[in-house]
């Protein structure tokens, strides 16, 4: 009997070692999110960055969306072309961030603009390459095919709506339209169960909540340490609370545990701070360098 049990354990161990999918399953208990893909390594919010983040082993792809003139959801952190990382329609450098408002451009125009060759002075390790801002639909399709072709475990999507009251109908649609455009695309792609919608703009989250009570929502917070008041203003308990990492305190960790809210701060890029926050009890981190964060999962 002992010999039979020993052989069974050996067989199970060998099977796990030889099954690529088993080895690729990320640590579900700690959520490592690749910020804008892996901004520290490849141009932000681009397909190469998302695929690289998957190869590194992230659980979640964190990204931002804006809306084009022809109502396409475009993956971009700003609702304009950033002169720091992008070239213009004619391949020119420019210094006025108001020159190219993406909400006033068709996606065909946006796709002609290079947002990777210049690199990013804040991230000297970032590889330069000619690449444009993709559609959200294109990102999902490409990622899902990549996962299938490589027999990898599914990843989650954490999608931020870039909006604020001052620029409604100037740089983006009003909250209800923005929320519906995003929700319908995610639903069409069959990704509702694997998607979180996040925002600093509570109006967007409130609008998504009206459409779907069950979808995961995350409240982003930059400067307000009063977490109970922040959630009160939101009007409901979000699935995830995502503050700037310096706002994380033991009191906040205890509150989120008590309320069963996941606590996932942004954006942490040095390993010592990552480790400190993990030991403090956060549920995950958002980072520009997921390669550094993967060390957190080493036993």
From TrEMBL:
Signal sequence region: 1-18
PROSITE patterns hit by this protein: GP_PDE (PS51704), PROKAR_LIPOPROTEIN (PS51257)
A molecular function GO annotation: phosphoric diester hydrolase activity
InterPro entries: GP_PDE_dom (IPR030395), PLC-like_Pdiesterase_TIM-brl (IPR017946)
Record keyword Iron-sulfur present: no
Record keywords, A-Z: Signal
Keyword Acetylation in annotation: no
Domain GP-PDE: 30-297
A Gene Ontology BP annotation from the UniProt entry: lipid metabolic process
Pfam families, per the entry: GDPD
PANTHER family for the chain: GLYCEROPHOSPHODIESTER PHOSPHODIESTERASE, GLYCEROPHOSPHORYL DIESTER PHOSPHODIESTERASE
Protein name in UniProt: Glycerophosphoryl diester phosphodiesterase
Species of origin: Thermoflexibacter ruber
């Amino acid at each position: 009997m002992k010999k039979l049990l020993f052989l069974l354990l050996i067989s199970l161990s060998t099977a796990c070692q030889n099954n690529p999918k088993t080895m690729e399953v990320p640590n579900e208990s700690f959520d490592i999110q690749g910020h804008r893909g892996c901004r520290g390594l490849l141009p932000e919010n681009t397909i190469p960055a998302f695929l690289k983040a998957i190869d590194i082993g992230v659980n979640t792809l964190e990204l931002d969306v804006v809306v084009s003139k022809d109502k396409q959801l475009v993956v971009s952190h700003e609702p304009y072309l950033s002169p720091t990382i992008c070239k213009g329609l004619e391949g020119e450098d420019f210094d006025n961030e108001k020159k190219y408002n993406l909400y006033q451009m068709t996606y065909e125009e946006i796709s002609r603009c290079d947002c990777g060759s210049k690199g990013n002075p804040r991230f000297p390790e970032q590889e330069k390459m000619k690449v444009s801002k993709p559609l959200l639909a294109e990102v999902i399709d490409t990622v899902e095919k990549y996962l299938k072709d490589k027999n990898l475990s599914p990843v989650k999507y954490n999608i931020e709506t870039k909006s604020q009251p001052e620029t409604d109908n100037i740089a983006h649609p009003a909250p209800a339209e923005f929320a519906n455009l995003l929700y319908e695309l995610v639903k069409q792609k069959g990704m509702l169960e694997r998607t979180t919608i996040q925002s600093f703009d509570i109006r967007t989250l409130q609008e998504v909540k009206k459409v779907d009570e069950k979808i995961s929502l995350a409240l982003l917070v930059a400067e307000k340490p009063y977490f109970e008041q922040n959630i009160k203003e939101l009007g409901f308990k979000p699935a995830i609370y995502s503050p700037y990492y310096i706002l994380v305190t033991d009191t906040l960790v205890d509150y989120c545990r008590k309320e069963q809210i996941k606590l996932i701060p942004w954006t942490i890029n040095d390993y010592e701070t990552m480790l400190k926050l993990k030991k403090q009890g956060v549920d995950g981190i958002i980072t520009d360098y997921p390669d550094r964060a993967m060390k957190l999962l080493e036993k």
